[in-house]
Write a structure and sequence with these properties.
This protein is an alpha+beta fold and 122 residues long. Helix content is 49%, strand content 20%.
């Protein structure tokens, strides 16, 4: 049951993204058609999740029809931990920093000769 709920949510988010792209770009439908079968998905999961839980996320993506249930389809799914996702978000921030500390959904940025400064990640 949980996998089906996750699949429904993934399908909904995918449809929202498709609608947004098609409606917000002058050639949105043509643009969408050009890449809709080649989308790579990067999905995050809690830090402690391993093989069995990750397999459920992959299964939900197939049920949501994001990717086909083939090796090629599975290759289009990348799984990252929430910690990795938070770190990449912090690294992508406009402010350069000398160091980072990621704790759950909060990023601490350090500049030379200064203490860590809390930066909210939402």
């Amino acid at each position: 049951m949980a996998i089906e709920i996750l699949a429904d949510f993934m399908r909904y988010l995918f449809q929202c993204a498709k609608t947004y792209i098609e409606q917000s770009h002058a050639n949105g439908r043509d643009m969408w058609t050009s890449f809709e079968d080649n989308i790579d998905f990067v999905l995050s999961h809690p830090n402690g999740w391993e093989g069995p839980e990750q397999a459920q996320i992959r299964r939900a993506a197939v049920l949501a029809q994001l990717v086909p249930d083939t090796q090629e389809g599975q290759a289009r799914i990348r799984l990252v931990t929430e910690g990795e996702a938070s770190l990449h978000y912090c690294l992508g921030c406009r402010q350069a920093a000398d160091g980072f500390q990621v704790c759950q959904h909060t990023c601490y940025v350090m500049r030379l000769n200064q203490l860590f400064r809390k930066m909210s990640v939402s």
